[in-house]
Specification:
108 residues; alpha+beta; Arc Repressor Mutant, subunit A; 3 strands
């Protein structure tokens, strides 16, 4: 089955939601999104790490170095209070847009 494109603007929302569960390293974030989306949404490194950098710069997450399950040195990302607030904002915006799209699809 061909890879599906990530909907525009969805990556930051998905990363924030994954981080809501606790500290996670980058590769694990991509894997979790892939698994939770029933193996539909692929997050490439070229998209993931710039999005994580944006999230860090905005103060929505922090990072610290640690060891992965395979004893590799990796950065673990954690949601900040500002990140939790942004997640709520992003979820509300997503819901509003999804409802509007469904309305058009049902009535057009």
């Amino acid at each position: 089955m061909p890879k599906k494109e990530m909907p525009a603007g969805a990556l930051v929302l998905l990363i924030l939601r994954v981080l809501h569960s606790g500290p996670v390293h980058g590769y694990a974030i991509a894997q979790k999104i892939y698994m939770l989306s029933a193996e539909v949404l692929h997050v490439e490194e070229g998209s993931l790490y710039p999005a994580l950098q944006k999230i860090l710069l905005k103060g929505w997450a922090t990072s610290e170095w640690g060891l992965s399950e395979t004893n590799r040195k990796v950065r673990f990302y954690s949601l900040t209070p500002a990140g939790r607030q942004q997640l709520e904002t992003e979820l509300a915006d997503y819901s509003r847009v999804a409802e509007a799209i469904q309305s058009v699809l049902k009535t057009a």
